[in-house]
Amino acid sequence: MKIIELHKIFLDYPNICTDTRKIKKNDIFFALKGDNFNGNKYADEALNKGASFAIIDEKKFYGDQKILVKDVLSTLQELAKFHRKFSKAKVIGLTGSNGKTTTKELINAVLSQKYKTIATSGNLNNHIGVPLTLLSIKKDTEIAIVEMGANHQKEIDFLSKLTEPDFGYITNFGKAHLEGFGGVDGVIKGKSELYDYLISEDKGVFMNADDSIQQKKLKGYIKKYGFSTSNPKFYQIKLVSANPFVVAEAEQTKIYSNLIGDYNFTNCCAAILIGKYFNVTLQKIKSGIEGYTPSNNRSQIIKKNGNHIILDAYNANPTSMSAAILNFAKMKSENKVLFLGDMFELGDSAKDEHQEIALLARKLDFEKVYLIGKNFNEIESNYLIFESFDDLKTHLLKNKTITNSSIFIKGSRGMALERILELL
Description:
Blueprint lengths: L2 H10 L3 E2 L10 E3 L12 H6 L4 E4 L9 E3 L3 H15 L3 E6 L4 H12 L5 E3 L9 H6 L8 E5 L7 H9 L3 E4 L7 H4 L2 H8 L1 H8 L3 E5 L3 H6 L6 E5 L6 E2 L1 E5 L2 E6 L2 E8 L4 H13 L4 H9 L9 E5 L2 E6 L5 H13 L5 E6 L8 H14 L4 E5 L11 E3 L2 H10 L7 E5 L14
Parallel strand pairs: 1-2, 2-3, 3-4, 5-7, 5-8, 6-7, 8-9, 9-10, 10-11, 16-20, 17-18, 17-20, 18-19
Antiparallel strand pairs: 12-13, 13-14, 15-16
């Protein structure tokens, strides 16, 4: 079946599902494959649960209401690309090492004050998530904000060509996925693939004009729109405070966010700048940002048993971990406690990067620090180190001594450090 014909079916049944546990009536089921599963085997189950059609790529599973294609994943991607061209929505592409999802949510919060918008759900930002986001564009969608993630070269290039964004923004270039990218230079090269695409297509670029890497990359490019804390050539935004919540000021208007830490300032700036570009009034920009509350273990503030807890356990890399620790050190509070979990995908740099984090905590005079994970277990430190979460759990249950404290929790997603909340 040609993509144009499949797209006609999609317009009649515009909801895509790849998981039979989440099937709803009239969904189109795409039978994706993985290392440990074969979606073709679940096509009948999807249809029995109410799916309108099942897209499969193995002939032995063919039958009524099933559409046989050469490859289900590539068909999903081609359909998404076709739908993106079919849609009249403007598309903003977004990538970076840190803050992608928060920035995406802020941009959506701002633009939705004036426009019909859609945005990537959660962090579904890979070769499957991006097509699903594009396919969520409705007839009345005016702007789509598409988050793109990557852990190796050419991935952002592929997603950019799939998405064909009209505008793009890179949050930053940090020490994330060093193993896949081959070091910091590889991260810069890989993330810059979004700007490379936009420049080659003569599209609009949003930038942090205070970021020297972005300055160099976009030097001489005309269609760039930036924010800065000091450069008068770009839109001026000032950091008023971050103790703990970020307060920004633009055009003598203070914007009070629900985001913790000065490292979230540039995320707010991007949303303000993009809102201004799309002619959202400053008062509506303010309403959008002030109305956004982070969730899903991202800089959440929790009060429990006399403790004031900052839970930032969604993910971590050396750049975001360092920034968060520095910010926590600046906060005015007593009895500070750090729970820091392993950072993943650092390759040969893992031991050195974890050692640096421990040294930073010591340099900032943190006394009560708990380091959790196999990577931290490899370093030298006077802090308490636990090879596993279970080891930490045993210790905390035996030594319930953390009360009336300010606690910061951060680690990579696989560490699931939100479980610490149950132990406090």
